[in-house]
Design a protein that fits this description.
Elements lengths: L2 H24 L6 H18 L16 H20 L11 H11 L3 H10 L4 H11 L4 H20 L3
Helix pairs in contact: 1-3, 1-7, 2-3, 2-5, 3-6, 3-7, 4-5, 4-6, 5-6
Length: 163
């Protein structure tokens, strides 16, 4: 992880915080960590479904992985992971934690399934886990950043139009 990549993540975290505040204001609610974790779990499930051809060994008729759709679902998961990260002890502007990143990488033993499971039961270091998931799926921070920028605009339009 280099400084440029981390700066992109921090920029996305700030944008996510602005979006979260707008959503909470519009819907007259407060951040709920448990609901956000459920949303993250749901988005990881959608991402996993888009990636099904890479792990579904029993079905010859499984459609091939659509990398664009997979990236979109991955970015949807990033939204909720960043929301959680922003509302934990780590906060919005924080440093990358290479020790936790390496720890998670070691624990997961290169398993996408284990990384996804850890994302749901952890209460911190969501970004480090999402970085590992992103890498396992063969995407870069630049891929995430570009797709996130587009989806953030869509989310604000949705909010404006009563989504």
């Amino acid at each position: 992880m280099n400084g440029i990549e981390w700066n992109k993540i921090l920029e996305m975290k700030k944008m996510q915080n602005v979006l979260d505040e707008a959503i909470m204001k519009e819907h007259q609610c407060e951040f709920d960590k448990n609901k956000c974790k459920l949303a993250l779990f749901d988005e990881l499930g959608e991402m996993n479904h888009e990636n099904k051809a890479s792990w579904c060994w029993w079905k010859y008729t499984q459609k091939p992985v659509d990398r664009e759709k997979l990236l979109e679902e991955l970015v949807d998961a990033w939204h909720f992971a960043m929301s959680l990260d922003n509302h934990t002890r780590k906060g919005i502007e924080r440093d990358f934690d290479p020790v936790m990143y390496e720890h998670f990488e070691h624990l997961a033993c290169n398993s996408l399934a284990d990384l996804m499971a850890m994302t749901v039961y952890m209460d911190f270091d969501y970004v480090e886990l999402m970085l590992l998931i992103t890498e396992k799926l063969g995407f870069t921070i630049d891929d995430i950043y570009e797709c996130y920028q587009k989806k953030n605009k869509v989310n604000f339009e949705r909010l404006k139009n009563g989504y």
